[in-house]
Design brief:
Number of helices of chain B: 13
Largest interface: A-B, 46 and 48 residues
CATH superfamily of the largest domain in chain C: P-loop containing nucleotide triphosphate hydrolases
Oligomer: heterotrimer
Shape of chain C: globular
Chains: A mainly alpha (316), B mainly alpha (347), C alpha/beta (509)
Helix content of chain B: over 70%
Number of helices of chain C: 17
Largest sheet of chain B: 2 strands, antiparallel
Strand order of the largest sheet of chain B: 1-2
Structural class of chain B: mainly alpha
Order of helices and strands of chain B: EHHHHHHHHHHHHHE
CATH architecture of the largest domain in chain C: 3-Layer(aba) Sandwich
Largest sheet of chain C: 7 strands, mixed
CATH topology of the largest domain in chain C: Rossmann fold
Distance between the termini of chain C: 45 Å
Strand content of chain B: under 5%
Number of strands of chain B: 2
Structural class of chain C: alpha/beta
Shape of chain B: globular
């Protein structure tokens, strides 16, 4: 058993899979993180990933280039983000209820539109997804090269995205305003910046990123759109934000750790262990792990002080 | 533009806005029908007749409403105390598993039905107890834990149906053996395809209503949900109240699964619930978390599903229109309720 | 104080400002002018309309009528941004700082275009440090706000305004949270500011501050300006008369008749409390004076059951307390008037009846787990009548009530249980004059009925006027007990800033 695990851990294909599995999670986790740092919990994430997966795929299926599909996914996500933002920010509606409503609506919209566009298909049609792009020189490094530098462009983009989010959050006036909106919105408003504007903007951009995460599934990982393909990844990203203590770097580490276990369990199913242990147990692992991560971080995390607290001008 | 509180909303405002929300939902339905290339009025008519147009249709709607009343109550009870139980789906399956475990010969009449009901209730309660204890003791957000438990439970059920609970006569399908006749809920009226689960759901709604309005526990649940700080200051045992709420909520959700297996289906399969646990959230929110309102909205939601199924077969509009409409109705409704309390003014 | 700058240019003019909230007229045709280099005190009781006026000036509220002119330019209403741009800086009573951000981040927040990359921390830090030096506002720009003392936080607020080159500083009750020493330093800063040509408005209801540190004062009452005078032409008595509308009668409360000790604390450590010993006697109002945030909340929570002692002994009626919780406290006869009636005292969405039995539903109004709503209703109607609660009826939502009526219901809820020990935490904060007198009367009545009353207040006048015995709390420590009239206001003030503690003074046991 131990030998099998070690054998898996030293294979390049395992690490390549880790980065691949982590990519959509990184996009969506960054999206959720932006929302929550601005003070808005976005439970629409699961549905927004579905709509992103669908919209990105559909756009490419209808003839747009792959990056065009990513842009369409971002736009579709931002649109549902706008819906969530308008309902919970100025109107101050329950972020839990609206978020779940957005998830239901986005999911149903994707399924409805898919059936509308392709009423009679039995096997889902395919597109040509992103191909692996080997980084010159770096991909020639033994072991590390094929593991890290022979990914699809969207995977590189995921890591770049995390870097940009961290930079904006900690190094720019915009990021400062965003963090202030999640810590003490009154302080932001007193300095003449619109809390509603920052929060709605954050939810839109964050939702756009969630949708891009969803589109990774159809544009990079698989080449078709299936129902149930997001399969709880959105909820896992919410756990990853908590696990990452609302910090981009730690959240990326969490996503990698999580993806590592996911890649491991897939491979363990093919070892002799897989013959003894039911495969459902392996599949449960990611979800169980997320719960354990939440428990582990429960006491330590620094929650944004104004998370889920609606802000009304002039009230204290 | 900003919002200004309305101190004393008029009755017109309180009733008119939700009515407006429903009208807006109907308009969305018609727009979606147009989008699908169908005649909007015909689609509305087909949904209506599909849900209520015949004795068979009405019975189907009532049957579909039964689990929704249970899950709707489960969500309403929990949300009222601001306990965000999104795990009704998992609790439902916990109840369904118990119905199979005790109903396939482990026990005979006359005990099997009441005992399995009580054990199912306990199983659902226990399943929600874990996230609630994590919330109360460690501050772990229950939204995510209850959501994730849904996925874990689905895999567990899949394991049971391919392993220990697999029907040897099932020709390889992942389903459980059929319940023995003594473990089945009888029909309310002979010859009508409506089982006692529906009646039990109505009774459950009445009991929950009495608990919330007449008992000290109900008072505490409402206080904890409305202002947890004030409840704590007033000396209410807040954590105990949350735990009791969880037990009640989880138990109610489990009864949904139990009655589906013991009443409607007679066995457990992976498609037992087409998301009854999640739809319960819509049912509860549309009812403004009122237990008796849950009965009404569950019938409405069930009608939309049953009607949309029938309409889809006839008009070719994808059946997912039902999910879209319910999500839209939910969002419109929470907005309408909020607007009874505030108004948008310029400046 | 500098010479009154009456000849100097007018920097700010408020003209006929009126603001209504429903039927309440918070500001009624208020006009005032501020000159360059002037310190103007805005004086008035709670609810006189001071804070509303400043919120209008700063753009948080829109006036129904009237206009604001700053440096000769009309100020567009309802835009904090415009007020900031016009050089108006506001220091709110409740600081608007983000705790998890650094001082520098709080100061630079919103000062640069959101779409820029920012001009770098070094330059910003440089500017903050030079402002700190010039205005005597010592604070480390790299510190997290959550690590700062209240006084330091206020300095950050002032720095925020100065960093934006504010020419007019508005301070809302700036000394309410400060020790007298910190307050002195603040006024020093304001003098430095006016010397550099800035103008200042500070809001206060403390007459000695107004007399000591302003050039002119505007007195508000019931939303109207009742007078604008040069400070040197007036005196405390005249100002007080304008504030309350009549000569202040020294309301003499007859002393109570001390009874047995109802509650005693010995060597208690809990939360912010350090080695606290205290006796509360029946028939006595024990006043607790101190600057807010020095352990008052912990003491109220401790006696009220929300906080458990980590060390020491607590006795109620001579018996040591073993199991303690809010419910146990209520059962032991502790009545509690909470500091925040909106957040902890009531459930806003509940009816008056439900709020009236929030503490007693389980013990007095239920049988076998069932609530007796008929009895609850009758009880509430009795309370409404006996405590003069103005409301539509017991089934009305309590959120519709004014603060005074809400407080009367809480008072009734507590008094109806005839508590042996009564904790009144800031019982009159935010109430109008009539309601204040009513609440004070009820506290004295409870004392005369034999209750041991603990009155916690930041208002030294209130403590001195009502208490039979006074303790001062400072940094979690409790002073010995002082009999009524034993110490002057100044001497109590010294205890409030920590003088006298740990100097061998025997605790009055």
């Amino acid at each position: 058993m131990g030998g099998a695990v070690i054998e898996i851990l030293i294979s390049a294909s395992f690490w390549a899979a880790v980065l691949r599995i982590a990519s959509p999670l990184i996009f969506a986790t960054m999206g959720e993180l932006i929302c929550e740092r601005a003070g808005v919990l976005n439970l629409g994430i699961e549905g927004i990933m579905v709509i992103g997966a669908f919209a990105g795929w559909m756009a490419v299926y209808l003839g747009l280039p792959l990056w065009g599909g990513v842009a369409v996914a971002f736009g579709a996500g931002a649109l549902f983000g706008l819906l969530h933002g308008v309902l919970v920010v100025p109107f101050g509606l329950s972020q839990h209820v609206v978020g779940l409503g957005v998830t239901l609506l986005a999911t149903a919209t994707a399924y409805f539109a898919y059936r509308l566009a392709l009423p009679e298909v039995t096997t889902p049609p395919k597109i040509t997804p992103f191909q692996a792009w080997e980084v010159p020189v770096l991909s020639d490094i033994p072991l590390l090269g094929p593991a890290l530098f022979a990914q699809t462009p969207l995977t590189y983009a995921a890591f770049a995205c995390a870097g940009v989010v961290a930079f904006v959050l900690y190094r720019t006036p915009l990021g400062l305003a965003l963090r202030a909106a999640g810590e003490n919105p009154a302080a932001l408003e007193a300095q003449g910046v619109s809390v509603s504007g920052i929060r709605i903007g954050a939810v839109m951009v964050g939702s756009g990123l969630m949708a891009v995460g969803g589109s990774f599934l159809t544009l990079s990982a698989f080449s078709s759109f299936f129902f149930e393909m997001v399969n709880g990844r959105g909820w896992i990203c919410i756990a990853l934000v908590v696990f990452g203590a609302w910090r981009p770097g730690k959240a990326v580490l969490g996503a990698l750790l999580f993806a590592g276990f996911d890649a491991l369990q897939i491979r363990l199913q093919q070892t002799p262990l897989g013959a003894v242990v039911p495969y459902q147990l392996f599949l449960m692992l990611p979800y169980v792990l997320s719960i354990l991560a939440l428990i582990a971080m429960s006491r330590r995390a620094q929650v944004p002080a104004a998370l889920m607290v609606p802000y009304t001008k002039g009230e204290r | 533009m900003r919002l200004e509180p309305v101190a004393n909303p008029t009755l017109l405002r309180q009733l008119g806005l939700p009515a407006l929300a429903l009208c807006a939902t109907v308009l969305v339905a018609m727009a979606l029908a147009l989008l699908a290339g169908a005649d909007p009025f015909a689609v509305l008519g087909q949904i209506l007749t599909g849900a209520l147009g015949s004795r068979l249709a009405v019975l189907e709607t009532l049957n579909r409403a039964t689990p929704l009343i249970f899950t709707g109550l489960a969500v309403a009870v929990a949300f009222r105390a601001k306990l965000w139980n999104i795990g009704a789906e998992a609790q439902l399956y916990a109840g369904a598993i118990i119905a199979v475990l005790l109903g396939t010969g482990a026990m005979g009449a006359p005990f099997v039905l009441p005992v399995s009901a009580v054990v199912a209730l306990l199983a659902g309660a226990m399943l929600l107890l874990v996230p609630v204890l994590l919330k109360v003791r460690l501050g772990v957000d229950e939204v995510v834990t209850t959501l994730l438990l849904n996925f874990i439970m689905a895999l567990f059920v899949s394991y049971l149906l391919e392993g220990p609970l697999k029907d040897p006569m099932g020709m390889g399908w992942p389903k459980s053996p059929a319940l023995i006749p003594e473990a089945r809920l009888p029909r309310i009226v002979d010859g009508l395809r409506l089982h006692w689960g529906f009646a039990l759901a109505l009774i459950a709604a009445g009991i929950v209503w009495l608990i919330q309005t007449r008992t000290t526990l109900g008072f505490e649940m409402r206080a904890v949900g409305a202002n947890i700080r004030a409840a704590r200051f007033a000396g209410m045992p807040v954590n105990a109240v949350l735990v009791k709420t969880a037990l009640l909520s989880g138990g109610l959700a489990a009864l949904a699964g139990w009655s589906e297996v013991a009443g409607a289906k007679g066995h457990l399969s992976l498609d037992l619930s087409p998301g009854f646990g999640y739809t319960g959230i819509i049912v509860a929110m549309l009812a403004l978390l009122h237990p008796l309102g849950v009965v009404v909205t569950a019938l409405f939601v069930a009608g939309v599903f049953v009607g949309a199924d029938a309409m889809s077969r006839a008009a070719g509009v994808p059946t997912y229109i039902a999910d879209m409409l319910l999500a839209v109705a939910l969002l419109f409704m929470v907005l309408a309720i909020a607007l009874t309390r505030v108004r948008v003014v310029r400046g | 104080m500098s010479e009154t700058a009456l000849g100097a240019e007018v920097v700010l003019r408020l003209d006929q400002i009126t603001k209504r909230f429903g039927r309440l007229v918070a500001n009624d045709a208020i006009s005032l002018t501020l000159h360059r280099g002037e310190v103007l005190a805005l004086l008035g009781e709670n609810g006189a309309g001071k804070t509303t006026l400043m919120n209008i000036l700063f753009g948080h509220y829109m006036a129904d009528t009237g206009s604001v002119t700053a440096f000769g330019q009309p100020l567009p209403p309802g835009q904090p941004k415009a007020a900031l741009a016009a050089g108006i800086g506001m220091v709110h009573q409740h600081f608007t700082l983000a705790d998890q951000l650094t001082v520098l981040e709080n100061i630079t927040l919103g000062t640069e275009s959101l779409w820029s990359l920012g001009r770098g921390r070094a330059a910003a830090r440089e500017k903050v440090q030079s402002l700190s030096r010039d205005f005597g506002l010592a604070v480390d720009p790299r510190a997290r706000v959550s690590d700062l003392s209240v006084g330091e936080r206020q300095r950050v607020e002032i720095l925020k305004a100065l960093y934006r080159d504010a020419r007019i500083l508005i301070l809302d009750e700036p000394t309410a949270v400060l020790t007298p020493q910190e307050a002195e330093a603040l006024f020093q800063t304001l003098r430095l500011a006016t010397a550099r040509g800035l103008s200042v408005i500070f809001i206060s209801h403390k007459l000695h501050e107004v007399m000591g540190h302003s050039d002119s004062c505007v007195v508000l009452r019931h939303g109207r300006v009742v007078g604008q005078v040069a400070t040197r032409d007036t005196d405390r008595r005249a100002l007080a008369a304008m504030m309350v509308g009549a000569e202040m009668a020294d309301s003499a409360v007859a002393p109570g008749v001390a009874g047995p000790v109802r509650l005693s604390l010995r060597g208690i450590r809990a939360g912010a409390l350090r080695d606290v010993s205290l006796d509360l006697r029946g028939g006595t109002i024990t006043g607790l004076a101190g600057v807010s945030g020095n352990g008052q909340a912990a003491l109220a929570d401790l006696i009220g059951g929300a906080l458990l002692p980590e060390a020491g002994v607590m006795q109620v009626d001579g018996a040591p307390v073993l199991q303690w919780s809010p419910r146990a406290a209520i059962g032991a006869g502790v009545g509690r008037i909470p500091e925040d009636r909106h957040k902890t005292g009531t459930v806003a969405d509940f009816t008056l009846a439900e709020n009236a039995v929030l503490e007693t539903y389980a013990t007095r109004f239920s049988r076998a787990g069932l609530v007796d709503w008929a009895a609850v209703r009758a009880h509430t109607e009795r309370l409404i009548a006996a405590y003069d609660v103005r409301c539509p009826g017991p089934e009305a939502r309590i959120r519709l009530l004014s603060g005074g009526n809400m407080q009367k219901l809480i008072l009734g809820r507590v008094m109806e249980e005839t508590p042996g020990i009564l904790i009144a935490n800031q019982p009159v904060r935010g109430l109008d004059v009539g309601a204040i007198a009513y609440v004070h009367g009820r506290l004295v009545a409870a004392r005369d009925a034999g209750a041991a009353v603990l009155l916690i207040s930041e208002d030294l006048d209130e403590v001195m006027g009502l208490s039979d015995v006074i303790h001062v709390i400072s940094e979690g420590r409790l002073s010995p007990a002082f009999a009524r009239g034993a110490l002057t206001q100044g001497e109590l003030g010294l205890w409030m800033v920590g003088h006298g503690f740990g100097e061998g003074a025997a605790h009055a046991a």
